[in-house]
Fold:
Amino acid sequence: MDWIADYHTHTWFSHGHGTIEENVQEAIRKKLKAVAITDHSFAHPLIGLNIDKVRRMRRTIDALNRRFQRDIAVFLGVEANIVNTRGQIDVPMKMFPFFDLLAVGLHRMVFMSPVLDGLRMSMANNLQWISGARRRAAAAINTRTLSRAMERYSVDIITHPGYCFPVDLSDLAASAASTRTLLEINNSHGTPSASALGTVLESGARFVAGSDAHRPSHVGSFDNAQRIIREAGIPEEQVINTAGHGVWKFKSHERR
Ligand SMILES: [Zn+2]
Ligand SMILES: [Zn+2]
Structure:
């Protein structure tokens, strides 16, 4: 498969191990046409973004886009956290204009608000290992929460669906299709699995492979994602960062 873009990479602005420019240079070296910087968002304790970091990132990316305009398009994204079961995320409204791309994912160790909601979600997910019924109950809460986020915001990508937090992939794919949200096939976490993906190919949802690189050398690495895509039998047209697609038009204009 020929890859043209990586829309999920981290830098030291959250807990990655490289700079924005290093990610961009690696993406150019791998002949990508676009790369997005999607660091962890505001509710992530210690490592998350803040207003000052976002301003600096925006300036850096604008300068890199001028410098490398013939080589690559660089996007400023964010991997936002969901902070309650209504699907609200941890990006302050006033910060939306800074971002070109909104990715949303469920993560552990995030401040939830209200706290009771957080307890409900973490309880459901901690009990998922007890039985199939508990796992389905956790998946129902997680799927509903992600779907509400997709309805509430112009979400571009749901990152690693199923990682740590089980989901009902067919319900999630239906929500993704109706809201034109991409479901990620994550190279680092191997989620969703090929067997799960194989059941939702008819949903109309589209997919994007993401490296989730936390160091520059991993930018544009899609070996695991490619294996999953092949195993699941997903046609390349349904994976939007493969050759045959242009640089993706994100929904950012709808948020401005
Ligand atoms: Zn993530
Ligand atoms: Zn990530």
Q: What stands out?
A: The pocket of zinc ion (ligand 1) is lined by residues 79, 105, 107, 159-160 (CB under 6 Å).
